Each structure stands twice: as C-alpha cells, then as structure tokens.
Model the fold of this input.
Amino acid sequence: MTELDRVADPWEQLERVPPGSLVQARETLHWAAQIPGAAGHSLVPPEPGDGHTALRWDDALRGLATDPGPGFRVALLPEPMALLLLLDEGGPVSRLELDGRTLEDALAWLERAIAELPAPVPRQQAAA
Done:
C-alpha cells in the first residue's frame, strides 16, 4: 500500500468478527475510557462541548489520548489494554496494564502517577 492509498483509505482492515462477540470488549473499553476522561474533567480547563474530556486517536501510540493538558496527556491503548501517562513534550512516564484491574485500581494509579510528575498539577474548581 502506498502512502497515497493510506491517505485515501486510512481504515485498517480487520478480520470479520461476529458483532455479538464484541459486546464485552466494547463495554470494557468504554469503562477504561472513563479514566482519561476523568483526568480531563478534573485537571484541564473546561471547553465548550466538553472537549477537554475528549479522546482522539493517536496513530503513533495506536490508542486514544487526551489533548495536552497541564503538562501531560493520558492515553488508553486497546491491545494490550493499558493506560499511559505521557508528558506533553515527551514519552510515557508511567504505564498500567489493565488486565485483572478494577476501575478503582486504575483511578488510584492515575492519581499516584500524576502526583509523581515533576511539577504539581492544579485541580480545576468545580462549577458552582
């Protein structure tokens, strides 16, 4: 495939899978995506339409990542499912494999990983 073909058709062809067999994976990915979104909600200045909580596909990571926030981004890799904490101007500083973990485990990891960043990250004030 040429680069022109990739630009014209950026979708990666996957195997045919019965849709019903993806229910558990879809639900797991949905819950895992709440973790980067929570970081955006708590730590990034609010944007109209809740864009500060959005995840965007990152080709280099092959995963979903938040937009740069106060010095860092959070990414969700689907295979193997893992969370990454990345510096805005650098690579990953912490990684958590999600197999066998709970939502609470992942949120606690994220809180610890952010607390260990070189500069403190201020929390956003809740809207009154």
